[in-house]
Amino acid sequence: MGTKQSSLRIASVGDLEELLPMVVRYHETEEIISSPRHKRDALLSLLREPSHGLVWLILCGETTIGYIAVCFCYSIEFGGFDSFIDEFFIEEEHRARGFGTNVIDLVVMELRRKGVRALSLEVARDNNPAKKFYMRCGFEPRDRYSVMTRLI
After folding, report:
1. CA geometry: angle at 118 spanning 114 and 122, to 5°?
2. Could you tell me which of 80, 18, 10, 20 has the C-alpha nearest to residue 50?
3. Helix (H) or strand (E) holding 28
4. CATH number of 7-136
5. Which of 71, 88, 97, 101 is in the most buried spot, having the most CB atoms within 10 Å?
6. In this predicted structure, what is the pLDDT of residue 57?
């Protein structure tokens, strides 16, 4: 099956109510535990401050079928702005139809236009289908490194 065409639209504060149910479904799928207020506040903060990152609505025609949130930082290693896919969600009925590949291509083009030098992501160690998908999209594992987090 060929790649399905989608389009992206940068989400704004006015899209919060459309985004929240998808964020809830994504968090349920990934077993991310946070309160409804936490989800709302975190998303609202990102939508209000595009220098921290962008959330794009994924559209198939006029229908929103998902979202992708990309956050920004700076990397000496990469020699400029770096970015990180924080969340990427496509509604279940639209998965495995080529939309994901199209979205990654569109996001990479947009980030390149903004001068971003690298795009990274996390994927569960045991999620082999996702790993294969991201490798087909040009991501490479950085096996020398492990992501480590400290909440502060």
Report:
1. 125
2. 10
3. helix 16-30
4. 3.40.630.30
5. 88
6. 97
